[in-house]
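2024-03-11 09:14:02 INFO worker-7 job=invfold-0412 stage=load source=structure_tokens
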């Protein structure tokens, strides 16, 4: 088990050695609270976009299903005729310059896996730059937009925002509720009191403090040919290799188990780089991976490699709430 995996396990399952990190946690809390207070006081340069901006992020380290929810939000807005743009840090990207507009034909090495996935799935205008304020300005300079979504950026306080949505894994919660490095929190738990909405990935029902959303598998897509097959393409009990390089690989493996396939799991680090050799498993079986991994593996994919397409399904209460927020933020002429 890698060091990062051991640390994640300690944060979410508990370990007495974490008490040794409390002094560093105290220092970290002071820094993030100071940055937050400066933002609330309007100190420093804070860029206010001329169109509404919604931050979709988390306060924890580890996967929370952020990309699928952003995909749902993009498509929901596009169906209403809204011109939506997205900005992202572009973790793992190595573009020739910054800011960089991601196009569907780019490689994941240049664009980053999550930004490339978002563009290939939705065709949305997307700009990457660790300086998200600069990314927003570049995006608006390139074309007219009605709304911008920030893929993460909760802690990027140089960028003003109109809505903050925080995602939490319903199964793992907030772990030991301590900040880095003694726990998985990027900001203290009380930060949740100031956000506009909390969404629990995997929750069956809405909660008093947040909305529920599920990740629903929809189909299998062949990396080599692009062929799309229904979920009964593999019969119950089918043995296959399962690959996941995401923040919470076990969630993907559990999803495959619910489809009644017999998986051999292969967990990789989040945003892992792959090669044909690294995925040359024995015995020889079909291989199923996440869509995020697939954007990096297409150039060397074998004929029996597939990705599982997954869609976010937020609760009806969240959909109604989100539509209300759009009506509040956008001019009436833009809404159906």
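2024-03-11 09:14:09 INFO worker-7 stage=emit residues=336
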């Amino acid at each position: 088990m890698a060091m990062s995996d051991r640390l994640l396990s300690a944060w979410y399952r508990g370990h007495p050695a974490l008490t040794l990190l409390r002094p560093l946690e105290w220092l970290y809390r002071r820094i993030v609270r100071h940055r937050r207070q400066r933002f609330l006081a309007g100190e420093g340069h804070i860029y206010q976009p001329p169109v509404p901006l919604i931050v979709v992020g988390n306060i924890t380290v580890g996967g929370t299903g952020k990309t699928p929810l952003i995909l749902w939000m993009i498509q929901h807005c596009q169906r209403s005729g809204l011109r939506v743009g997205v900005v992202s840090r572009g973790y793992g990207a190595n573009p020739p310059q910054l800011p960089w507009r991601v196009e569907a034909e780019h490689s994941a090495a240049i664009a980053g896996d999550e930004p490339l996935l978002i563009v290939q799935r939705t065709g949305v205008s997307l700009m990457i730059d660790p300086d998200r304020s600069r990314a927003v300005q570049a995006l608006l300079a390139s074309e007219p937009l009605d709304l911008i979504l920030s893929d993460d950026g909760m802690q990027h306080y140089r960028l003003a925002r109109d809505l903050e949505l925080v995602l939490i894994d319903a199964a793992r919660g907030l772990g030991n509720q301590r900040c880095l490095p003694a726990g998985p929190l990027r900001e203290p738990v009380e930060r949740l009191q100031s956000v506009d909405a909390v969404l629990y990935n995997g929750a069956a029902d809405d909660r008093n403090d947040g909305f529920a959303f599920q990740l629903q598998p929809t189909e299998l897509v062949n990396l080599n040919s692009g062929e799309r097959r229904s979920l009964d393409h593999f019969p119950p009990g089918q043995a296959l290799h399962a690959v996941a390089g995401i923040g919470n690989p076990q969630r993907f493996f559990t999803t495959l188990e619910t489809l009644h396939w017999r998986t051999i799991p292969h967990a990789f680090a989040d945003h892992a780089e792959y090669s044909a050799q690294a995925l040359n498993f024995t015995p020889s079986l079909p291989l199923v991976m996440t869509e995020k991994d697939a954007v990096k593996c297409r150039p060397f994919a074998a004929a029996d490699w597939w990705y599982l397409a997954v869609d976010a399904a937020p609760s009806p209460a969240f959909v109604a709430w989100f539509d209300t927020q759009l009506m509040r933020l956008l001019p009436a002429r833009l809404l159906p």
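2024-03-11 09:14:09 INFO worker-7 stage=report msg="The chain has two domains: 3-212+314-334, 215-312."
2024-03-11 09:14:10 INFO worker-7 job finished
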